Amino acid sequence: MSLLKVVRTSTPDAPPALPGFEHVRRYWDPTQSCMTAKVLPGEFYVSTQEELITTVLGSCIAVCIHDTRRHIGGMNHFMLPEPLGERDSWSSTVGRAARYGSDAMEQLINAILNAGGQRGDLQLKVFGGGRVLAQLTDIGQRNIDFVQRYIATERLTLCAADLGDVYPRQVQFFPHSGRARVRLLRRHDDVALVAGERIYLKRLANDPIKGEVELF
């Protein structure tokens, strides 16, 4: 009689996320053989580990920042450039979510510096801004204009960008090495992403704290 040996595999234990990022969903990706953190609109994530950060973009922007000497990196994901009345200011407001680019950039940079990074060693890679919401003002282009202006004003180092076009994107960023990959999503069923962005925009517009959002 032959015996069948059952081999059970388990997810490798991974170090916890940095303090303040426990709410971000992390899971083991067997295809990449590493932990993966999924960043949603209005979120950002910073890591000092050899893991992967991923997100899916339509008209949104994701900025990936990497400290080339200390191997610290992070990604944000924002839908709108900045609240009305702050078009000439990069200052962040305590307690405001990283839903706006003006806040998302400050919060991501500050979190990397707090983790030990140095501003002079930061390199940026920028993705997104697709025109996927045809009935609305080109929010993607507004986001592109904002992030380019922000980088120039703050004298940050931009080393790669994939912006515009009409397709959603999937972005993968390895914060320890600074390597990034982007894939255009061309399938018809990617309309689900567009629907998700519409819902998110409507929620921002109805937010009692941020009711000044202009969508049209």
What is the fold's blueprint, element by element?
Layout: E1 25-29, E2 34-38, E3 44-47, E4 52-57, E5 61-67, E6 72-76, H1 101-114, E7 122-128, H2 139-154, E8 157-163, E9 169-174, E10 179-184, H3 191-205
Annotation keywords:
216 residues; alpha+beta; 60s Ribosomal Protein L30, Chain: A; 5-stranded mixed β-sheet; 3 helices; disordered C terminus
Summarize the structure in short.
By secondary structure, this protein is of the alpha+beta class.
- What's the structural domain tally? 1
What is the CATH class? Alpha Beta
The strand count comes to: 10
Strand content: 25-35%
Low-confidence stretches: 86-96, 208-216
- What Rg do the Cα atoms give? 18 Å
Shape verdict: globular
Number of helices: 3
Q: Biggest β-sheet: count, sense, barrel?
A: 5 strands, mixed
Give the CATH architecture. Answer: 2-Layer Sandwich
Q: What's the average pLDDT?
A: 81
Structural class of the secondary structure composition? Answer: alpha+beta
- What is the helical fraction, as a range of percent? 10-25%
Distance between the termini: 73 Å
